[in-house]
């Protein structure tokens, strides 16, 4: 057997084992199909407003970095340059458009959100051989060029390691608060340590095969690049109760409520299409995954300054990043200004249902 085929064999075995496991137990998917979730009208309305905001080209910009790369970013929330500013760092597979989740809540609180594209995503150039600390330097350059004197950070999901790097190096007199929202820490000692069995198997296979990561990214880009929004919504609505969705993350009533309206699928489509527009292929995306899952961040969590307010927000029903990751980070981060908040939410619903609460706490920390 050729060495290159081993990852695919392992992936196949994982799927087989998972399928057998599912067949041997009652499926909650059947129960989920029988549920009639209540549409979350507030979330639906906010997503529609964010999509309208995304249509304004002036909201999306690029910055030329010293090494010649492009750094993409977008504005959400308050239009005032004098409003309290929070820099949003997206999760894996997303881009700056995910900052739009906070648009309406930020407007209501008069907060300006600057949502950035990590290298390889959206409008940002790829950076091969980089690190989370390199990304933090990009953010530092952005704040300098935009003349932002004081700001906070919010890092979501796979954006966690990059957010921690920013917390480590950004100037004390500028960075006033950090929020880790359903966010990963150093990969092996947080996410993998507390992962459920199938995510652990899946990530183990993916993390050990750059070939498989690249193949999967290319397949996704090829499949969705020319797909209409209408077809995307139809296909994914059917998948909500499929066995493999149940395998990765059991359909929870909170997720069903969010996806019972087309707005969430439509915004997901926009996020995906933004990445499909890239002309340089998927290598930058694959590299970003490598950086995200590197255990050695280039610094110790204990070295992050003790006087920095850090808010940890996690969902009790999150099957992607366990709330125990938040517990682990609280133990390791220094100082007495680290707070852990656990809500009865999933990975997706935590991001959408707790936006206002998360922003209010960040604003409180920024104002001291």
Task: List descriptors.
single chain; 8 strands; eight-stranded mixed β-sheet; globular; 17 helices; 368 residues; alpha/beta; disordered N terminus
Tally of helical runs? 17
Q: Compute the gyration radius: what is it?
A: 20 Å
Relative strand content = 5-15%
Main β-sheet description: 8 strands, mixed
SSE series? HHHEEEHEHEHEHHHHHHHHEHEHH
Number of strands: 8
Strand order of the largest sheet: 1-2-4-3-5-6-7-8
Describe the protein in words.
- With 368 residues, this protein is an alpha/beta fold.
- It has 17 helices and eight strands.
- It has helices spanning 6-23, 28-34, 41-54, 103-109, 132-145, 160-169, 188-192, 197-207, 210-224, 229-239, 243-248, 253-259, 262-276, 283-292, 323-332, 347-353, 355-367, and strands spanning 60-64, 70-77, 85-89, 112-116, 151-156, 175-181, 310-315, 338-343.
- Strands 1-2-4-3-5-6-7-8 form an eight-stranded mixed sheet, sandwiched between helices.
- α15 (323-332) links the parallel β7 and β8.
- The protein is globular, with a radius of gyration of 20 Å.
């Amino acid at each position: 057997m050729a060495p290159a085929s081993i990852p695919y064999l392992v992936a196949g075995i994982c799927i087989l084992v998972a399928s057998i496991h599912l067949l041997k137990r009652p499926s909650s998917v059947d129960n989920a199909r029988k549920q009639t979730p209540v549409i979350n009208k507030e979330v639906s309305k906010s997503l529609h407003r964010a999509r309208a905001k995304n249509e304004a080209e002036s909201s999306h910009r690029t910055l030329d970095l010293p090494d010649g790369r492009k750094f993409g970013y977008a504005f959400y929330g308050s239009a005032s340059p004098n409003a309290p500013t929070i820099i949003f760092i997206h999760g894996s597979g997303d881009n700056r458009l995910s900052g739009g989740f906070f648009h309406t809540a930020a407007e209501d609180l008069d907060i300006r959100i600057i949502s950035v594209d990590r290298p390889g995503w959206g409008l940002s150039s790829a950076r091969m051989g980089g690190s989370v600390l390199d990304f933090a330097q990009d953010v530092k350059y952005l704040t300098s060029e935009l003349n932002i004197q004081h700001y906070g950070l919010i890092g979501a999901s796979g954006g966690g390691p990059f957010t921690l790097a920013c917390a480590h190096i950004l100037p004390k007199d500028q960075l006033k608060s950090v929020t880790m929202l359903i966010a990963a820490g150093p990969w092996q000692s947080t996410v993998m340590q507390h992962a459920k069995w199938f995510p652990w198997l899946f990530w183990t296979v993916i993390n050990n095969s750059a070939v498989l990561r690249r193949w999967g990214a290319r397949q996704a880009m090829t499949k969705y690049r020319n797909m209409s929004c209408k077809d995307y919504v139809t296909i994914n609505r059917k998948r909500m109760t499929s066995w493999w969705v149940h395998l990765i993350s059991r359909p929870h009533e909170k997720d069903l409520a969010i996806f019972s309206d087309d707005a969430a699928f439509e915004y997901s489509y926009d996020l995906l299409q933004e990445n499909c527009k890239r002309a340089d292929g998927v290598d930058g995306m694959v590299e970003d995954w490598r950086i995200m899952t590197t255990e050695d961040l280039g610094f110790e969590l204990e070295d992050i300054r003790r006087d920095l307010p850090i808010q940890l927000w996690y969902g009790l029903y999150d099957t992607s990043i366990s709330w125990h990751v938040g517990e682990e980070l609280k133990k390791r981060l220094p100082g007495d200004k680290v707070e852990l908040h656990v809500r009865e939410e999933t990975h997706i619903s935590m991001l959408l249902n707790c936006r206002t609460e998360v922003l209010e706490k960040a604003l409180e920390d920024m104002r001291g």
